[in-house]
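Before relying on records like the one below, remember that each one covers exactly one chain. Contacts with other chains, cofactors or solvent are not represented anywhere in the record.
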Amino acid sequence: MGTTLALSLPVRPRRALVLPVRGVLMTDPDGGDLFGRIARGDQRAVSDCVQHFGGLVQALAKRWNHDPLDAEDAVQEIFIDLWKSAGRFDPARCSPRGYVAMIARRRLIDRARKRGRAPTMVAFPEGFDTAGESTSPAEVLEHG
């Protein structure tokens, strides 16, 4: 027969968190309530989300992109994805921070794949015969 061990740990009551910059009141210090608010169309929740998770998203984007402008574009795309997918957040499956990191990772992988498929410009070799100004497009097509 098994023995059950019960631990009595002190439980801290959950308090509202007031962010110092704007005085935003959040019921969940991890940001889980933000996604529900975003899904319901709360415009303030989007800016709260950017403020709460901006550092994480920016750090991930900088790690994946060597170009600072590309990293900024990635951050914007990630927050757009978070806005679109806020209704799919399930706190039973992962933490809010994990959800943000997962969305960011997926978007950054997509962007890296896209960069890998981008055509590269190659210069014409020396002595490459280009059509002169006097050559018409029809002549180029006839003579190859």
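Confidence is low (pLDDT under 50) at residues 1-27.
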